[in-house]
């Protein structure tokens, strides 16, 4: 990169907030994707305001410098991995929760604020931002970038359903505002929704207005072992149609449960006998502002699960429940520690989960590999750890699993995004007419193709 | 229009399904906007399949023929009013509810199906499509076009929150599918969301996958007169934060209540004395699968309203409730019958409603006109009937009211859209950088500008 350009970047954010060479730590070279090799950027800039972001983008556009946005780098698709010749904009200094507005039940947040920080600030007001991906160190901007989901999505929806407005800087330098503190709007194309999930390729987000919910006073967690995976899957729609509105509805297969139990020293009170006869577990979270109603919902849910073949139903106490949920959230680390070669998150219609899982296992066996997993069962979002050392075989296996998901009416990713890790599969499997349209939309935002080139498509 | 082009259109849909000249009825010339003069199109085509829609668009694109899509023509912004030199595509024959899928809680619907039809089909399965704008003759395609809202949006969200996938024909003729029977996806830009609310300017929708909810067994409606509008507005966030999750939360000002009561012969049991001391009413709908829980929620809601200054709280029986809700839905016709010159639906943050309403009244008085209204109070969506005969004054009044809404953090329209009726105001009040971006997005979809030119922007 030209020295004059670097100097200009330094002028914009201040010398101390611009990193080059040895001052760039390894962290900036990667996210948590298992397959994207770390790659350090030429420059890291840490702006403090939207105006600085705008100046950075204008300069980058003028000199054809590729720009990657980074929140906390906890993404799983390599979408925050910078270009060697590029500028990485880290939002770590724009990390304030600017406002928790209890009357409108919204918060106004800078993109670098973490979900953990937002959780703390909203809890103080008796409210909650209900997007809880497994990693609460994730930044709000990053969750907008990937349209993050997580366990509570089964009740509250994903990021897309909980972001009402944005301030964003276009690659052409203009700062725009979309949406607002309102839950609906029909006034032109919805740019909020278009930017959400665009993985830093359309615009950089400098402020986010999120929707908050009242925090129910009471909650409970049920754990049910099932001898048969198909029965788990059959129980899911039944629980949903019962009207109890669980806020967590996760399945965990026996291998994953063994791994996370071991890693996190879980004591669930499941007897060896039951455990050995179990193919998968269902974890159901319920919450209510009223204790009696919660008890009623627990009873009803336990009944449904027993009817549908659960060998037992355990009611976990607060501490036990928290440990199980945390362990489930760490399933990714367990898979990584076990030597998983990739982790994917295909989404399919709920009804298609059993068929899709069976097919994925067949394909893995044929490729001399294996798949194990857990997932947001209520959303049909299956997280699979892929074990298959041979890169070429693994590529084909992934292709076939993604194709099976699409054939079942689903998509390659439910919440992690395409990033750099899955773009070849996206290019190979997506309808060419749609891909061409996506590229034209990209072009409408970013005529010089400076924002995250190489992410989503080449 | 060239005879050869007309002949080609007839070939595509069949002679009997192509209307020209005297065979085109008045209905096709307009929607329900109060300000857009009727205008007959050159040709009306009634396709039966996506392939026919595609062929129509390809032909239209080849000859530069402007194309307007029409559902039921109940829109309020003139967005379905065709061009004199154009083709109107009426979706009346593509009106099947193709599937009600109880396991995935979705329905697959053709665009011409009415909400009334969908209501009937889903009710039979114990499920509901929860988008209920005031006019159930509206088509599903039309509600996608405008991102329709309605009363239940306070609990269930608007069309945008309840459509999971689309089949759509691009103006370039390609038929694409977006989303699916899944509640989440992070696989490229969200074209479903981009097409929703685009008022027929980006793509024509030929199939819609909508989300369904279990239909709660019990419901109740409360009516509370308030001596002061500000107190009504103060009660709204309190009811929402109480956690009772009302499915209806409407305010009706005293003049509107008088008009709809008179037109629909409502007997609400409100004494003359209370009525005369009332500035506005709050209507709260509650529902639950459990009768006792519903009763508990009613009590709690009544308490909140009494605390906040309601002069009384009436519990309406089933018949009375239905009549009131129906009458509220007909507020538009009451306004029209009373000689309203326009009806608008500004949306503002809930907290800004009192200030915005006061400002709108001031502006109307200054313009020697008047405003009365009702609205989706839970959403900050204010429906105002505008009385102001002088066209130039009215134009300025609307401009000022829209500007006041935007200044309060809101937008010109919460659910009716911009269409042809409000595009001048949109052009005058929207950020030029955003307008330019919207135009580039339009261009990405519709390079020849054949889809609904003159809607949203000129
Ligand atoms: C253990 C573990 C568990 C996880 N569980 C879940 C889960 O349950 N559900 C889920 O959805 N995800 C999960 N994730 C993935 C990850 O937490 C999410 O993808 C999250 O959204 C990433 O946030 P981040 O701040 O780390 O983003 P980053 O990785 O820094 O960036 C993600 C994307 O957003 C873009 N971006 C960042 N900031 C901005 C900005 N200001 N403007 C525009 N674009 C921006 C980046 O360019 C990149 O494309 C998990 C990850 C881990 C490690
Ligand atoms: C009495 C009354 C009460 C109302 N109450 C409400 C309310 O509470 N909430 C609310 O939101 N609205 C309300 N409306 C407005 C109206 O019902 C909605 O705007 C509805 O969405 C229009 O549906 P339609 O089928 O009549 O659409 P149309 O008027 O036919 O078309 C509306 C738009 O959608 C486009 N369109 C139609 N079909 C397609 C397709 N297949 N593909 C792409 N674009 C298409 C059209 O081109 C146009 O831009 C009310 C209207 C009336 C008359």
UniProtKB/TrEMBL annotation, chains A, B:
Pfam families reported for this sequence: FAD-oxidase_C, FAD_binding_4
Please indicate if the UniProt record lists NAD as a keyword. no
Q: Which UniProt keywords apply?
A: FAD, Flavoprotein, Oxidoreductase
What cofactor does this one take?
FAD
Question: Is Oxidoreductase found in the keyword set?
Answer: yes
Under InterPro entries, the record lists: FAD-bd_oxidored_4_C, FAD-bd_PCMH, FAD-bd_PCMH-like_sf, FAD-bd_PCMH_sub2, FAD-linked_Oxase-like_C, FAD-linked_OxidoTrans_Type4, Oxid_FAD_bind_N, Vanillyl_alc_oxidase_C-sub2
Entry superkingdom: Bacteria
Q: Give all residue intervals belonging to the FAD-binding PCMH-type domain.
A: 36-215
This chain's protein is named FAD-binding oxidoreductase
């Amino acid at each position: 990169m030209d020295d004059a350009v670097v100097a200009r970047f330094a002028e914009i954010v201040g010398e101390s907030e611009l990193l080059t060479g040895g001052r760039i730590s390894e962290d900036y070279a990667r996210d948590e994707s298992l397959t994207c090799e770390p790659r350090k950027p030429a420059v890291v800039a840490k702006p403090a305001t939207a105006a600085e972001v705008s100046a950075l983008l204008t300069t980058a556009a003028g000199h054809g410098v590729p720009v990657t946005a980074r929140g906390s780098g906890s993404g799983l698709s390599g979408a925050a991995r910078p270009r060697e010749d590029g500028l990485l904009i880290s939002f770590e200094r724009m990390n304030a929760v600017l406002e928790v507005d209890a009357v409108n039940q919204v918060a106004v947040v800078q993109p670098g604020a973490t979900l953990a920080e937002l959780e703390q600030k909203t809890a103080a007001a008796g409210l909650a931002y209900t997007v809880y991906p497994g990693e609460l160190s994730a930044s709000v901007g990053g969750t907008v970038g990937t349209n993050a989901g997580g366990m509570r999505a089964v009740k509250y929806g994903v990021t897309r359903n909980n972001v009402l407005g944005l301030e964003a800087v276009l690659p052409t330098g203009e700062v725009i505002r979309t949406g607002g503190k309102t839950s609906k709007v029909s006034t032109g194309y919805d740019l909020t929704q278009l930017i959400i999930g665009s993985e830093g390729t359309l615009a950089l987000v400098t402020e986010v207005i999120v929707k908050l919910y009242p925090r129910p006073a009471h909650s409970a967690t049920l754990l049910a072992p099932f001898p048969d995976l198909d029965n788990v899957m059959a129980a899911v729609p039944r629980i949903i149609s019962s009207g109890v509105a669980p806020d967590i509805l996760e399945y965990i297969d026996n291998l994953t449960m063994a791994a996370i139990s071991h890693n996190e020293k879980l004591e669930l009170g499941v007897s060896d006998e039951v455990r050995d006869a179990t193919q998968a577990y269902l974890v159901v979270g319920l919450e209510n502002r009223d204790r009696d109603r919660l008890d009623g919902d627990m009873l009803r849910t336990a009944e449904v699960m027993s009817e549908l073949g659960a060998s037992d139903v355990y009611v976990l106490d607060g501490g036990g429940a928290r440990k199980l949920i945390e362990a489930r959230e760490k399933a990714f680390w367990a898979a990584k520690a076990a030597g998983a070669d990739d982790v994917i998150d295909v989404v399919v219609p709920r009804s298609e989960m059993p068929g899709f899982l069976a097919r994925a296992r067949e394909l893995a066996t044929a490729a001399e590999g294996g798949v194990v997993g857990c997932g947001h069962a209520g959303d049909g979002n299956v997280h699979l750890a892929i074990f298959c050392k041979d890169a070429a075989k693994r590529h084909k296996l992934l292709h076939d699993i993604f194709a099976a998901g699409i054939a079942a009416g689903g998509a390659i990713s439910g919440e992690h995004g395409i990033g750099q890790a899955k773009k070849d599969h996206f290019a190979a499997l997506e309808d060419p007419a749609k891909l061409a349209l996506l590229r034209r939309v990209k072009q409408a935002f970013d005529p010089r193709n400076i924002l995250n080139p190489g992410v989503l498509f080449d």
